[in-house]
Structures are given as C-alpha cells and as structure tokens.
Amino acid sequence: MDLSIVSPVYKAQNLVPILVEEIHEALEPLDKTYEIILVDDGCPNDSWTSICQIAESNSRVRGVKLSRNFGQHQAISAGLESATGEWVVVMDCDLQDDPNEICSLYSKAKEGFSIVLAKRTNRKHSAFKRYLSKLFYFVFSYLTNTSQDPTVGNFGIYNRKVIQSILRMGDHIKYFPAQVQWVGFRKTAIPVRHFSRREGDSTYNLRGLFRLALNNILVFSDKPLRIAVIFGIAVSIVAFCLGTVYLILGLLGIVTVSGFVSLIAGLFFSTGSIIAVTGMVGLYVGKTFEASKKRPPFIIEETI
Questions:
Q1: How far apart are CA 285 and CA 288, in angstroms?
Q2: Contact 37, 62 (CB under 8 A)
Q3: Is the pLDDT of residue 55 over 80?
Q4: pLDDT at 121 (0 to 100)
C-alpha cells in the first residue's frame, strides 16, 4: 500500500461522502494504491452509518468505530494503528483541509523528507480562535522548549517510520502535532489553501482549548515545576532581604512597631505562593497517577 489517509470523524455525517469523493478525485492522477481510514470518535449523530455505507460499496474505505468519544488526537492514534501505507496522510474531516493538496505534499516528500507539514497561509478560523491558537502555541513552545507553528495543524504526510515512532510513544495523553515535533526526522512545510467549514461549528470551545493546553503542557514538559522552584527561591530571597532590613531598622530603633499592612501582605503572598506551587505539583502527581493505571487511550468497538 502506497498511501493511507487517516481522518477522525465527529459530527460530520453529511461531510463523510463528500470527503471520500474529493479524496478519490485528488489521488486519481497519482496512480498509487491507497486506503481511506475514517475513525468514528463516538459521534452523537449517525456518522457511523454513513461510514459503513461507503465502506461496503468502496473497498478502499475502512471504518474504525471507537466505543465512546475519546478525543480527536486519540482518534488519530487509532487510525494510525490501522494504517498500512508507506506514507500516511492525516487530515480533518470538516474539509477545511483541501484533499487536492495531498498530491503536493506527496511530491514534496519524494524530495527526501520524512515529514511534510501543511502550512495554512490564510486560516479561515475566527479571529478569536486564531488569537487563542497563537497564545497557546507561544506558551506551549516556551514551556516545552520546542518550536510550534500556529499555522500548522494535523494536516500533513508522514513516512511509515515516523508513524511507527509516534505509535511507540507511551504517552497517556495524545497530541499529534507535538508528537510529530518530538520524534524528529527530516521535515519541511509547504503553504496550502485553507477553507471554511462546510458544515457545523468547531467542537473546541474555550474550556476545551484550556484543558487541551493544560494537559499537553503537563505531559510534554516539566518546566512549570522548574519555574515553581525558581519562584520559590526568589520569594525566599526577597523575604530574607526584607527580614534583614527590618531587623537592622529595629536594632537602630527606627522601627518600633511592626507594620500590620506589611505583615498581612506578606502572609497572603507567601500563602498564595505555597498553594500555587503545591497545586502545580498536585497536577503532575495526578497525571502520573492516571498514567500508572495503564488504561488504553482508546477502545475500538468495531471495524469495517
């Protein structure tokens, strides 16, 4: 098998037939063997019925149904495990990623790259979502010491050895773009067109984006803990210096009564700092506890 196209499906019952048709039209000039893997991520609508109907009439289409909604990146991992192609394309099902760009990605990969990412030059997301995306990638890049591009998402083509390396990663929480950056290999990016959603709205709200950011920062970096240690040392130094100053002033008779305001402010500041640092450590302990259970990141209920 030359190519595998993996697409997680969620609330896209009407888009699945269009997606498959456009992929067929886009790949026809390549004259390569390919398969399309559609992963039903516990859709509340009847997307699985649509996938089954297409798979029964088209031998190139394979369907994977998860037992519940595990999340987009877990669904991508399920599709990657089922992929058999030498090259694997990952794309969303909402048709914001143009299937016609697959040929461009494949041609660029043949120049000697193991990873070719799609760089969205004119994103059709809302201004609010673009701002949140830039903020997330800025913070995520800083805390993980990696280079993350907000214009690059899941869409891209990946060599089989890249996919095998990603699948060997034992992370309990999955985030495909960060996994791609972590495994390395020779990579590049090409500009691609980006379209508006054909149907419906994005399922990522502010709360979901915040949870995604927090989970991935905790999984991919321990830098927040090191920042907390530095913060604690800085607070201790400031407290020691202030204590020394007040001691000297007291010995010189300049200060005779301790200040109520400075006492309360210092108490609140130190207490808040302790709670914040303890809470951060608790988050890491909680994630470690979740990982120790060794629960599978997803469960496949059915394939077709």
A1: 5
A2: yes
A3: yes
A4: 73
What are 274's two structure tokens? Answer: 């302790």
- Give the pLDDT of residue 88: 92
User: How open is the CA angle 190-193-195, to the nearest 5 degrees?
Assistant: 145
pLDDT at residue 72 in the model: 82
The overall average pLDDT reported for the chain is 77
Using the structure block, give the residue that is written with the tokens 């059915």: 302
Instruction: Assign 3-class secondary structure to the chain.
Output: CCEEEEEEECCCCCHHHHHHHHHHHHHHHHCCCEEEEEEECCCCCCHHHHHHHHHHHCCCEEEEEECCCCCHHHHHHHHHHHCCCCEEEECCCCCCECHHHHHHHHHHHCCCCCEEEEEECCCCCCHHHHHHHHHHHHHHHHHHCCCCCCCEEEEEEEEHHHHHHHHHCCCCCCCHHHHHHHHCCCEEEEEECECCCCCCCCCCCHHHHHHHHHHHHHHHCCHHHHHHHHHHHHHHHHHHHHHHHHHHHHHCCCCCCCCHHHHHHHHHHHHHHHHHHHHHHHHHHHHHHHHHCCCCCCCEEEEC
- Annotate 51-64 with b (16+ C-beta within 10 A) or e (fewer): bbebbeeeebbbbb
- Can you tell me the distance from the alpha carbon of 81 to that of 160, in angstroms, rounded to the nearest whole number? 11
Region 182-208: mean pLDDT is: 71
With a CB cutoff of 8 Å and minimum separation 6, the contacts of 265 are none
Q: Are 159 and 106 in contact (CB under 8 A)?
A: no
Give every CB contact of residue 11 below 8 A, 6+ residues apart in sequence. 43, 44, 45, 47, 200, 203
Mean pLDDT of 204-208: 59
| Distances from the Cα of 85 to the Cα of 5, 159, 166, angstroms | 9, 9, 15
**Residue found under tokens 């607070």:** 235
